[in-house]
Structure formats: structure tokens, C-alpha cells
Design goal:
- It is a single chain.
- This protein has 441 residues and is an all-alpha fold.
- It has one domain.
- It is built from 21 helices and no strands.
- The radius of gyration is 22 Å and the shape is globular.
Length: 441
């Protein structure tokens, strides 16, 4: 296997960012002490001072290339539409009606687990965790404000459900990237992946019930208007039908605004103002995404990602060690890139080489890539999922992490699957199937 050269110093901007953003919060006990935008701007400045062989303009152009990556721009558009939809639906009374419906139907101890399950269905259908969080976060905020359920717990449930679908959906970028890089079948990867993470989903649901069982607040459900709930229903139905997330959110904006205009909640002027306010509320998140994308491109060019790849693979000596190597490889890369799809695309070819050399079934290697990238993505406080949830909730991303049961548990069960060699594959049956497929072609 060819050794990949890298440069550990290239990771310095990421270390600076984490030291400022996370470190200052730990030291002071206040994670708002250091604004995240300031922390990432300092890290970007550090990145631009590195690699003296290139001119400043060359490095700025490289930064712009990363900041303008299609994945980053699509994510930014999702954030913009999510903000507009959230504020539009809220302004015409959708949140209040939805919360009151939930309070009237579900016992309070099942409200949060309901968010987790609904989030799982939406993300399975939409194939995107950020779109799912954008759709459910306002409802989670409303439920928390009407009960004594901690907002961080409610948001963690939404993130958990979103990561469930991001990991398993057949239209998710992570699934597609894992399947393509490992040259396996979508259906086969889903089966292996599903049985590894199913116990994590079940335990997460139980934990969410336990953590909300002691909720003693006596909140009586007020009246609700079914019509005002329709924007959220429309988003859910469209998501379950497999529509593109951008079309789902854009349709939700039009639907919510149309209802508001008809029932008098909005005039045309107040409708457009609500959209503008929602978009403005996402400005920090948009800037963060662009800045982090540019910084990661510089880190990658300077050899930071290659350094991680080399460090994670040089001591592999056994099949289990190789599987742990694949898991560690994609996890460390995800910590650096803050994007699970990019981390799979980056490490996938090397993971395929490792899998081939140590006779790891390609269904297993694809599942490991997806599971551990989604686990890390659901936990890092500077990832899009945590940032968008924290933006809606008005809390620090750090406060959500202790309740992020599902992202933690899928890593735990991924490790268990490696240790007990689960699942055990019928290689003869798979070989026969591959032969049939090759003949049919």
C-alpha cells in the first residue's frame, strides 16, 4: 500500500479554532465568551499565513475555491430556505398550532422521542440531516417552551433522528459516497448498516423517554387550527415522497405564506418581511459554513488531511485493526473537514485499498465509513447540524452534546460490530450473486 505523505502542521488552523471556540468556553464556563465567527476568522488568518511558497493571492484564491465548493453552496442555500420557511411558518401561527396538537395527543414523556422518530422518517426520505433539522427545530423549540423539557435535549433528539436518516437513506450523499467508493450495492450496504445501528436507535428512544418521564409540568393544550399545521404536514409528506430538500423548503415557504395571506395573518408586506427576517437569522451560519469550507481547503492543500490518512493507517496489522483503521480514518478526517460527505469521498479510496488487502467485505467497509462519519458529524460543535440546531434554539452547540445519545451510540455499536465480527457474511452466496449480475450485464 502506497504511503501517503502529509504535514501535521497544516492542521494548526483547526487546532487554533478549537482552542479558541471550545477551549475558552471550558476555561471560562461560558461558551458565548468567544464568538464562533471570531474564532474561525482567527483560524482562517492562521491558515493564510502558512505555506510561504505561495503568494497571499494564491492562498486567497485557494480559500475561495473551498468556500465556493458545490457542497458548501448547496448547504448555504438550504440554510437560507430553512430560515425563511421557519420564520414564515412561525409568523402565521404554525408552530403554536403544531405544539398544541402534540400536547393534546402525546403524553409529555413521549414528546421528545416523537421528535426523534419523526426526524428519522423525514431524514430517511429527504436524505439530508440539515433539511430535517430545519423542518423540525422550530417545533422542538415550541415544545420546549411550553413544557419544562430542556431545549438542548429536544434539539439533540432532532439531531439524532436527522443523523439516523443521513446514515441510512438511499438518497443521502453519505450513503451514495460510501457505496460508490467501496464499489458495493446500495441495498446490501443498507442491510448491513441498518442492523448495526438499529440497537442504537432503540436505546436512544428508551433514553429519551426516561429523561423526560419526570416532567411534572402541567401544561394544558390550547386550541389549535388544523389549517395552520398544513405547512409542516406538507413538508413531511413531500419529504416522505422523496422530493428534493430545496424544493421541499421552497414549497413550504409558499404554502405557509399562502395560508397566512388567505386567513389574514399576513399582508404581502409582512409576509416578505418574515422571509427576510428568517434569512437574516441564518447569516451567521452562512458565514461560518463559507469560512470553514475555505479553511478546510487550505488545510487539505497543505497536507493536513494526508497527514491524518497516513497516521491512521501505518500501524494496521490485522483485519480487526484494518476495520478500526477505516473507522478512525473517516472519523479523524471528519473532525478536520466538518463534513461527513467530504470525509467519505476523501478517505473512501484508501479505505477500499485497506478493505481489499485485509479481506474486509465491501458492505462492511461502506457501512463503517458511513456510520463513523455520521457519528462524528452529529457530535462536533462546529458541524452544520449542531450549528443550525443551536441557531434555532438560541443555545451553545456545546450544551447539546451531552444529550446526543444517538451519534454516540452508533459509534459504540459500530465498535462492537468490529469486535464481534458482525455481521458474518455468506461469501459464497455473495460471490454467486455477483457472478449472476456480471452475466446479466
Amino acid at each position: 500500500m502506497e504511503k501517503i505523505r502529509g504535514n501535521g502542521w497544516a492542521l494548526l488552523p483547526l487546532a487554533v479554532f478549537l482552542a479558541l471556540f471550545v477551549g475558552s468556553g471550558i476555561i471560562t464556563g461560558d461558551f458565548y465568551k468567544m464568538p464562533v465567527l471570531v474564532a474561525v476568522l482567527v483560524a482562517v488568518a492562521v491558515a493564510l499565513t502558512m505555506n510561504r511558497k505561495d503568494s497571499l493571492m494564491t492562498k486567497v484564491e485557494r480559500f475561495a475555491k473551498g468556500a465556493g465548493h458545490p457542497d458548501i453552496i448547496i448547504m448555504v442555500i438550504i440554510f437560507i430556505l430553512a430560515g425563511a420557511f421557519s420564520e414564515t411558518a412561525k409568523g402565521m401561527g404554525a408552530v403554536e398550532s403544531t405544539v398544541n396538537l402534540a400536547l393534546s395527543v402525546l403524553p409529555q414523556s413521549f414528546l421528545v422521542v416523537g421528535l426523534f422518530i419523526i426526524g428519522a422518517f423525514i431524514s430517511l426520505s429527504m436524505g439530508t440531516s440539515t433539511g430535517t433539522i430545519a423542518a423540525l427545530a422550530p417545533i422542538a423549540v415550541g415544545i420546549s417552551s411550553e413544557t419544562d423539557i430542556a431545549i438542548s435535549l429536544a434539539m439533540a433528539a432532532v439531531i439524532g433522528g436527522a443523523m439516523f436518516g443521513d446514515n441510512l437513506s438511499i438518497i443521502s450523499d453519505t450513503t451514495i459516497a460510501a457505496v460508490r467508493t467501496q464499489q458495493t450495492d446500495m441495498r446490501d450496504k443498507f442491510k448491513v448498516n441498518f442492523f448495526i445501528v438499529l440497537p442504537a436507535a432503540i436505546i436512544t428512544a428508551v433514553l429519551l423517554i426516561v429523561f423526560t418521564m419526570g416532567n411534572q409540568s402541567a401544561v394544558s393544550a390550547e386550541s389549535f387550527n388544523w389549517v395552520k399545521i398544513l405547512p409542516y404536514v406538507g413538508v413531511l409528506v413531500a419529504a416522505l415522497a422523496g422530493m428534493n430538500v430545496l424544493a421541499v423548503l421552497a414549497g413550504g415557504i409558499v404554502f405557509a405564506g399562502g395560508i397566512g395571506l388567505v386567513d389574514g395573518s399576513y399582508t404581502l408586506a409582512t409576509f416578505t418581511k418574515a422571509m427576510t427576517d428568517g434569512i437574516s437569522g441564518m447569516s451567521e451560519l452562512v458565514m461560518l459554513s463559507i469560512l470553514i469550507g475555505g479553511m478546510v481547503e487550505i488545510i487539505k492543500h497543505n497536507g493536513g488531511i494526508h497527514f491524518i490518512l497516513n497516521a491512521m493507517t501505518k500501524n494496521i496489522t490485522s483485519k480487526k485493526g484494518a476495520e478500526f483503521g477505516i473507522a478512525g480514518l473517516v472519523s479523524a478526517t471528519n473532525l478536520s473537514t466538518a463534513n461527513n460527505t467530504i470525509s467519505i469521498i476523501t478517505t473512501g479510496p484508501l479505505a477500499k485499498n485497506i478493505a481489499d488487502e485485509y479481506n474486509i467485505d465491501k458492505r462492511k467497509s461502506a457501512s463503517l465509513l458511513d456510520i463513523f462519519s455520521c457519528s462524528v458529524q452529529g457530535l462536533i460543535p462546529y458541524g452544520a447540524q449542531m450549528l443550525i440546531a443551536a441557531e434555532f434554539a438560541g443555545v451553545s452547540p456545546i450544551s447539546i452534546i451531552p444529550y446526543a445519545f444517538y451519534p454516540i451510540l452508533i459509534a459504540v455499536f459500530g465498535i462492537i460490530a468490529i469486535l464481534i465480527n458482525f455481521p458474518r457474511f455468506n461469501t459464497r452466496k455473495q460471490h454467486s450473486r455477483n457472478m449472476k449480475e456480471s452475466y446479466s450485464k
